[in-house]
Design brief:
globular, Protein-Tyrosine Phosphatase, Chain A, alpha/beta
Length: 463
């Protein structure tokens, strides 16, 4: 069940993550598009400006005249428009199916998979390809929502870059010609029983992709590396040496240097040094993201000077370890995109200063126990919110002092009251956002608003 030429497509939640970019691409392909959302936003306005009919609020009559209705994981199945579409016998597709239809209309597509870091890698790749004169015509993920406002079109021969999310089936529906697997850890276990089931699902998606021509794999991630024997396509590997010396990655990084304001590594292709790359982002995981982007961009034909130039200037993404403000010597960091255990571990371990952590939200079937040791070592105070608060408290509450807050705003206020000079107040939830917020972006924005509402604001640059 997919789209056909001439179909009018109605998006339920057209202002959601990735939905507006797909809507704009379908308009570029000649489809009529309409959509609805619970409130107006810059994205709904951008889609309307390009010709889509946009409704604010959900009503059954909004689907009249549509042939296909597109939803996302954030849209409940009892939504009035979804129910009306099913009663009328309309085709109801998931966002990933519509995205797959758009990708199939591109000759060259680069897809980014991984438990965390996908948005950062997508944006790094997009900018590296642009710098090298290989401007993509369509991008979804990372900063692509802004990017797509001026470039959501389909151009034969030009590449597209997409973030492929295993949680919504995108890895099975989006058939990119080149895929990079940055890491693979336990996440979305409300969809998959365990990590092995997730791995098998991903391998099946690779095997069922007739357009697959190359897979770029992080040989430094043990679980990601396990898929290599099952991939029926040429494999390019990357990783940090000496940890993956036995795997002989095509693109490797040596002489890794980490600092509080970024990191540096020397990039090798085969045995040849391409030069040192310094990035302004803190944490080992960001160096790994940079290496993933470099490996795919170089294998796609970008020159090493373009890749290095982009990585050296990359400022980071909103909601990914984003500096918000400093107040009375306390630094506030928004990592709302830290929606799984692995991402939170990397975030917490990236700080040498005491951390007051705000966590919790909608549980995705996660095992929170791996957070125990990092919390015991780095977290001064754990402030829990959302439906998963009790489960998290049972798993890791004894690792450090743990308290509960009813709202995110209460959590920010409590954290500011308990923080002392030199502390970091970090929002990194390890959970999805759907119990209290529209999405992780809404959660991040509300966190920033609450932080900036504290008295004595002193803005500055990320440390």
């Amino acid at each position: 069940m997919s789209l056909e030429a001439g179909d009018h497509v109605h998006f339920v939640g057209i202002g959601g993550i990735g939905m507006s970019a797909v809507a704009r691409a379908l308009m570029a392909l000649g489809h009529g598009v309409s959509g609805s959302d619970v409130h107006a936003s810059a994205l709904t306005a951008a889609v309307a400006a390009e010709g889509a009919r946009v409704f604010i609020g959900h009503r059954a009559e909004h689907v009249e005249g549509a042939d296909v209705v597109v939803t996302s994981s954030a849209v409940p199945q009892d939504n009035v428009e979804v129910l009306a579409a099913r009663r009328a016998g309309l085709r109801v597709l998931h966002r990933s199916e519509a995205l797959g239809y758009v990708v199939d209309r591109h000759d060259r597509c680069f897809g980014v998979l991984g438990t965390h870091g996908k948005g950062t890698v997508v944006t790094m790749i997009t900018r590296a390809l642009e710098h090298a004169g290989l401007r993509p015509s369509f991008v979804v993920g990372g900063l692509a929502l802004d990017y797509g406002r001026t470039n959501a079109r389909v151009v034969r021969g030009s590449p597209c870059v997409v973030e492929i999310d295993e949680s919504d089936g995108s890895h099975a529906n989006v058939r990119a010609g080149t895929m990079v697997l940055n890491n693979l850890e336990a996440d979305h276990l409300n969809f998959y029983g365990n990590l092995e089931e997730l791995r098998r699902s991903m391998v099946a998606a690779f095997r069922d992709n007739p357009r697959l021509r190359r897979v770029v794999v992080n040989a430094g991630s043990p679980t990601a590396r396990q898929i290599i024997p099952d991939v029926c396509a040429p494999v390019v590997t990357f990783g940090f040496v000496p940890e993956v010396a036995d795997s002989r990655p095509t693109y490797a990084a040596r002489a890794v240097v980490l600092g509080p304001s970024g990191g540096a590594f020397t990039l090798f292709e085969g045995g040849e040094a391409l030069g040192q790359v310094t990035i302004p982002l803190p944490g080992r995981h960001n160096l790994e993201n940079a290496l993933a982007a470099a490996a795919l961009s170089l294998s796609a034909g970008a020159d090493d000077a373009s890749v290095a130039s982009v990585l050296r200037e990359f400022p980071g993404l909103e909601h990914r370890l984003e500096f918000v403000r400093e107040r009375d010597g306390v630094t506030y960091i928004n990592d709302s995109k830290g929606t799984n255990v692995g991402a939170v571990i990397k975030s917490v371990e990236g700080f040498t200063r005491p951390v007051i952590l705000i966590a919790g939200g909608y549980d995705k079937g996660s095992d929170f126990s791996p957070l125990y040791d990092p919390f015991r070592q780095r977290v001064k105070l754990l402030v829990l919110i959302g439906k998963a608060a009790d489960k998290m408290a049972k798993a890791v509450g004894s690792a450090t002092e743990t308290v509960f807050a009813k709202t995110l705003q209460d959590a920010v206020r409590l954290s500011s009251e308990r923080a002392t000079q030199g502390d970091v107040v970090l929002l990194s939830p390890a959970c999805a956002s759907f119990d209290m917020f529209r999405d992780f972006e809404d959660r991040g924005r509300q966190f920033k608003e609450a932080v900036l509402a504290l008295p004595g604001c002193r803005l500055g640059k990320a440390f």
